[in-house]
Amino acid sequence: MEALELSTSSIEHKWRRIQSRLRAELGDDVFTSWFGRVELEGYDGRIVQVSVPTKFLRNWLQSHYSDKLLACCGTELSGANKLEFRVRQPHLAAVEKLKAAPVAAREAGAAAPRTQPAPATPVPLRVVSQMPARDGRTGLDGFEGSPLDARYTFQSFVVGAPNRLAHAAALQVAESTPDQPLRYNPLYIHARVGMGKTHLLHAIAWEVKSRNPGAKVLYLTAERFMYSFADALQTREGPAFKEKLRTIDLLLIDDMEFLQGKTFQQEFCHTLNSLIDGGKQVVVAADCAPLLLESFDARMRSRLSGGLVAELAPLDYELRLKILEKRATEKCAVSPTFEVPADVLDYLATQLTENGRELEGAITRLHAAYQLTGEKVTCDAAENTIGDLIRSKEPKRVKIDDILRIVAKHYGVQRGDLLSSRRNQSIVRPRQIGMYLAKTLTSRSLPEIGRRFGGRDHTTVLHAIRKIENLKQQDGVLKDELDSLSRMLKDGSI
Q1: Can you give the pLDDT at residue 134?
Q2: Which of 192, 348, 408, 432 has the fewest Cβ atoms surrounding its Cβ within 10 A?
Q3: What is the mean pLDDT of residues 363-374?
Q4: pLDDT at residue 428 above 90?
């Protein structure tokens, strides 16, 4: 039977009626939590195809609401007797729409009176071969790269034991000449936020352009790559865009973990292979090692691992102190009378341990306070200036009320359901998860947890904890859910 298209008004109308039925039967909270991101993909007269953004949501809906959804579909779609769930790729729908746009335009034009079309003028895609403009952008005509920060150079990068390897590799890449074989290709730099990944990528770009103004350099965030590629598809410049992209000398991609969607990943993989096979340098930065990029296929992860993988480790005390001294010296160049005493630098290096950005931010605050008030920098002044940064690091005391609230919201159930005697699987599992979180995140005893969860016996709580612990070892999705809930409770983002 010929498949019915999503775009037909009748199907859209019926899907809206199905959604209304679900909302009426399940309530606003449950509907919003579990069905707010469900989209109808197609219907062939028997099978209803729907998509969701995550594997967890697909598994949960299949386990808990498949019958309910199929029943509602059956009332509106005659003959519907089967459901198919799939996990949709982020951004893929947008790309498909962009691909379809020229076709729709041609079909619309077919119905209009024909006129002699003007000859098509292809958009020139010339790779920039001079120093980046004053805003620090590199790119192609009609396609700008992401901006470069003039502050992020090798001269301003502070080197220590945690980042020495990555810095040396980046410098080696930047200092390579066209007649030298590439040593590290691709160079893959990974670290958590604020460790200096972006700084190194910008430094490479500035250094290469300084040494060789004619070099074709392109720096992009993964988001910018996706946007630009989608835009090229929409304007029917996809082939020219891809061809010119593969003629550059140095490609730097930042935030690789955000490159989502099968279409974009495949296109980047083709570009990566073409550049590397052609002897062109590629540098990639991400928040994790290549093998941990779970949304990428094995071939892509393997190719990214094929060069040098360098990690920027967490900053130790010595490196934090060096960063603070460097940033304080830079401020002294602006205000010669500005001075940060050694005891203040030691205090900051001891208290601020997360990343380099907060260290730089602390010096910026002290400098601003000095410019506005003229008062000398002391430990007391520093404590007042960065007090919010220090207080934000104090562990939050997790309360059982917080756990009940966030578990109920996350799993689309009522708080009263968690405290009730209801034994539905859709209630029992969130209740057990709540008890597990109460045991792992609070100092409450088993009997007290039982009392707070509807007056249950401590043996019930113990059974729930053991149950979730066992499932956590077997189910990676559940483990991720528990880790996410724990972080939200500890961080206070509830």
Answers
A1: 39
A2: 192
A3: 89
A4: yes
Q: Is the confidence at residue 423, as pLDDT, over 50?
A: yes
Residue with the larger pLDDT of the pair 236 and 316: 316
Cis peptide before 90 (omega within 30 of 0): no
State the amino acid at position 492 in one-letter form. G
Lowest mean pLDDT among 127-131, 248-252, 266-270, 302-306: 127-131
In this structure, what token pair is assigned to residue 347?
């205090």
Q: pLDDT at position 171, please?
A: 94
Burial class (CB in 10 A: 0-12, 13-18, 19+), 165: middle
- In one-letter notation, the amino acid at residue 194 is G
Q: Output the CA–CA distances (angstroms, integers) from residue 361 to 146, 308, 328, 385, in the order listed.
A: 23, 31, 11, 11
Q: How far are the Cα atoms of 56, 81, 96, 314, 480 from residue 476, in angstroms, in the given order?
A: 10, 31, 31, 26, 6
Q: Which residue has the higher pLDDT, 386 or 110?
A: 386
Assigned domain for 113 exists: no
Asked whether residue 291 falls in the same domain as residue 323, the answer is no
Burial grade of 200 (CB within 10 A; 0-12, 13-18, 19 or more): buried
CB 292 within 8 A of CB 256: no
Q: Which amino acid is at 55?
A: K
Scanning the structure block, which residue is given the tokens 């082939």? 239
3-class SS letters over 313-359: CCCCHHHHHHHHHHHHHHHHHHCCCCCCCHHHHHHHHHHCCCCHHHH
The Cα angle at residue 268 between residues 266 and 274, in degrees rounded to 5? 105
Co-location of 203 and 301 in the same domain: yes
The answer to whether the beta carbons of residues 227 and 122 sit under 8 Å apart is no
Nearest CA among 122, 119, 117, 121 for reference residue 105: 117
The CB density around residue 131, as the number of other CB atoms within 10 Å, is: 13
The verdict on 306 and 336 lying in the same domain is: no
Q: 324 with 346: CB under 8 angstroms?
A: no
Same structural domain, 277 and 327: no
Tokens of 19: 């959604």
Mean per-residue pLDDT over the chain, rounded? 80
Single-letter amino acid, residue 225: F
Which domain range does residue 444 map to? 400-491
Contact 195, 314 (CB under 8 A): yes
> Closest Cα to residue 223, out of 133, 91, 94?
91
Q: Are residues 165 and 244 in the same domain?
A: yes
